[in-house]
Design a protein that fits this description.
Length: about 110
């Protein structure tokens, strides 16, 4: 637990330095949507930045096998359009893995 705490403190320190001292505007903060259309547009992957898409891909990959992770090394150097395609591939792999896991649970409960 302390390892996570130290990592969180370090990430917070780096974020504060980046945003407030270096005046970097490259953060994930977005305005709060007022209308439903603004909310839908904000959640749309087509409107996401390259960094946001990369983070979403990495979140899926963290939960997948090492062999799948190796297949997608170097995604940060990809273009935005390529990242959107990779995101769809990774999401599909993730969903198919979860369907297999769920069906295993159902099969075991029936016996």
């Amino acid at each position: 637990m302390t390892n996570f705490t130290s990592l969180a403190k370090q990430a917070r320190k780096e974020f504060i330095t980046k945003v407030f001292y270096n005046n970097s505007s490259n953060s994930f903060f977005r305005p709060i949507p007022i209308t439903k259309q603004e909310e839908v547009a904000q959640k749309s992957e087509a409107n996401m930045t390259k960094v946001e898409i990369t983070c979403k891909i990495e979140a899926f990959l963290e939960q997948m096998s090492k062999s799948v992770q190796k297949k997608y090394l170097g995604i940060k150097s990809k273009k935005r359009n390529e990242l959107l395609i990779i995101l769809e591939e990774v999401r599909s792999l993730f969903n198919s893995d979860n369907e297999h896991d769920d069906s295993d649970c159902f099969d075991n409960s029936e016996t």
